[in-house]
C-alpha cells in the first residue's frame, strides 16, 4: 500500500510499503514505525537539532539485512537539509533533521534508529555532549550495568559533572554529559577515558576497559571511545531494531538506584504512557553546559 501525505509544513511526502512487517513477532509494520516517529517528534527533534545523522536502514525490517548510509542520497527531496563534513579522504554530506517532514522521510527510508553526532553543525569539531556507553558482556546482568552506572555517576559528580542516563534500547545504558562546545573530540575522549579508568580501578571485578570482546566476559565494558570524531550514538527516544520494538528511554537516577529497571518495559507501545507520567527526563540536557577543565587537569597530571 502506497499513499501520498501532503503538506507537512508545506512539504509533500510519498510513503511506501506501509504494510511491510518490520517487527514480525509483534505484527508491527512500516506504518507503525512512521506513526511512532510522527508522535515522538516533539520529544526527539530538540535532541538531534543541527546534528549530522548517520542512517542505518532496514528495508526488510529487523530480520532483514541492514546497511549504513552517511551520504545523503541523490534522490532525497530538495527540502532535506545537509551539512558537509570534511574527512580524510572525502567530504560527506550528512542529513540534518530539524523538522517533522525530514524525520518521516527518514522513517520511510526504513531508518529504524536515529544515530547522531555528538557535535552540531554550529561547531562540528567540538562536541556539546560526552558519552559513556555501558555495554554488558556475556555473563553480566542488567543489574550489573545499573550498579556500574552509579559508579560512573559518582565519578562524574566528583568533578561537578551532571550526567543524564537512558537505556540503550538493548542491554546497556548510555550516559550523556552536556558540555560547553569548546573541547575538541580528542580532549573529550581523554576526559571520559580518565573517568572510565577511575571506575575500573574502583571495581575491576565488574568493569572492563578491554576492547577485545572475548576478554570482557562477565563484566561491563566502559566504552569511552564513542567520543571520537564522527562517532554516533542512538539518541533519546530512538527505536532499536530488536524484538519488542524497544525505545532508548531516559531514566531518573532514582530509578537507577532502585536497581529494579527492566529495559524490556520501554517499547514503542509503552513509551507515551511513560512520558505522561514522568515527562521528558532529559529536558535539562538541552540547556546545561559544563566544563571539562577539572577532569582534563587531573588526567594530565596522572599521565604526566
In brief, what are we looking at here?
The chain has 304 residues and is an alpha+beta fold.
**Architecture (CATH level 2) name of the largest domain:** Alpha-Beta Complex
Measure the end-to-end span. 63 Å
Fold-level CATH name of the largest domain: DNA primase, PRIM domain
CATH superfamily of the largest domain: DNA primase, PRIM domain
Question: Explain this structure to me?
Answer:
With 304 residues, the protein is α+β, with helices and mostly antiparallel strands. The protein has 2 domains: 3-117, Alpha-Beta Complex (DNA primase, PRIM domain), CATH 3.90.920; 129-303, Alpha-Beta Complex (DNA primase, PRIM domain), CATH 3.90.920. 29% of the residues lie in helices and 23% in strands. It is built from 7 helices and 16 strands. Strands 5, 6, 7, 8, 9 and 15 form a 6-stranded antiparallel β-sheet that branches. A hairpin with a 4-residue loop joins β3 (21-23) and β4 (28-29). α1 crosses α2 (100-108) and α3 (142-157) packs across α4 (185-202). The mean pLDDT is 95.
Amino acid at each position: 500500500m502506497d499513499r501520498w501525505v501532503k503538506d507537512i509544513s508545506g512539504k509533500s511526502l510519498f510513503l511506501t510499503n506501509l504494510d511491510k512487517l518490520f517487527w514480525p513477532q509483534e505484527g508491527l509494520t512500516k506504518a507503525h514505525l512512521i506513526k511512532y516517529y510522527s508522535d515522538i517528534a516533539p520529544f526527539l527533534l530538540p535532541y538531534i537539532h543541527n546534528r549530522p545523522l548517520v542512517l542505518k536502514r532496514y528495508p526488510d525490517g529487523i530480520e532483514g539485512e541492514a546497511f549504513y548510509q552517511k551520504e545523503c542520497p541523490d534522490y532525497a527531496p530538495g527540502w532535506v537539509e545537509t551539512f558537509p563534513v570534511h574527512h580524510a579522504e572525502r567530504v560527506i554530506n550528512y542529513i540534518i533533521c530539524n523538522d517533522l517532514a525530514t524525520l518521516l522521510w527518514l522513517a520511510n527510508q526504513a531508518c529504524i534508529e536515529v544515530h547522531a553526532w555528538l557535535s552540531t553543525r554550529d561547531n562540528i569539531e567540538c562536541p556539546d555532549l560526552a558519552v559513556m556507553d555501558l555495554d554488558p558482556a556475556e555473563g553480566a546482568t542488567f543489574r550489573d550495568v545499573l550498579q556500574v552506572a552509579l559508579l560512573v555517576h559518582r565519578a562524574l559528580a566528583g568533578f561537578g559533572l551532571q550526567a543524564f542516563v537512558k537505556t540503550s534500547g538493548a542491554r546497556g545504558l548510555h550516559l550523556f554529559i552536556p558540555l560547553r562546545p569548546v573541547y575538541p573530540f580528542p580532549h573529550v575522549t581523554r576526559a571520559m577515558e580518565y573517568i572510565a579508568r577511575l571506575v575500573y580501578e574502583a571495581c575491576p571485578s565488574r568493569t572492563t576497559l578491554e576492547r577485545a570482546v572475548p576478554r570482557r566476559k562477565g563484566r561491563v565494558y566502559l566504552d569511552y571511545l564513542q567520543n571520537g570524531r564522527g562517532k554516533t550514538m542512538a539518541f533519546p527516544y530512538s527505536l532499536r531494531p530488536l524484538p519488542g520494538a524497544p525505545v532508548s528511554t531516559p531514566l531518573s537516577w532514582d530509578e537507577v538506584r532502585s536497581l529494579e529497571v527492566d529495559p524490556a518495559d520501554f517499547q514503542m507501545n509503552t513509551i507515551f504512557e511513560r512520558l505522561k507520567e514522568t515527562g521528558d527526563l532529559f529536558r535539562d540536557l538541552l540547556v546545561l553546559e559544563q566544563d571539562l577543565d577539572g577532569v582534563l587537569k587531573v588526567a594530565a597530571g596522572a599521565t604526566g
